Amino acid sequence: MLAYYTPTDFYVMDKLKKFELMAKIVRELEDVRKSQQAVLEKIGKIEVDNIELGDKLIESKMPEIYGRTAENAEAIRQILEDFQQKTDDFAGNNNIDKLKEQQEINNLK
C-alpha cells in the first residue's frame, strides 16, 4: 500500500522538523553551558591548590584563562537564553502541540 501525503502533511512535517532541530540545539547549548561551568570550577580549584604550591606560571596564567573562559561561558548562556526564547516563540506561533497531535493521527492512518 502506498502512502498518500497531502500538502498539509508536508507542512506539518516541515514545522515539526524545524522545531525538533531547534529543541536539539537548545539541548546542545545547555550541554555546552554546563561544560563551561565545569571548566570554570576546575580552573578555580587549580588556582586554590596553587596557593599552597606557589607555582609562578600557574599564578600568572590561570586568572587570564579563567577570565576568557568566564566571558565565553556568559556568551553561551546568553545565546542559550535567546535561542530558548526563539524556540518557545516558534512553538507557540506554529501551534507545535497541535501539529504533533496531527502527525500522530496521520501516522495511524
Plain-language structure description:
- It contains three helices and no strands.
- The protein is mostly helical and 109 residues long.
Task: Give keywords.
mainly alpha, rod-shaped, 109 residues, single chain, 3 helices
Radius of gyration: 23 Å
Gross geometry? rod-shaped
Distance between the termini: 12 Å
Structural class: mainly alpha
| Strand elements, count | 0
Residue runs with pLDDT of under 50 for 5 or more positions = none
Order of helices and strands: HHH
- Percentage beta strand: under 5%
Largest sheet: none
Q: Overall pLDDT, averaged?
A: 89
* Number of helical stretches of at least 4 residues: 3
User: Helix coverage percent of residues?
Assistant: over 70%
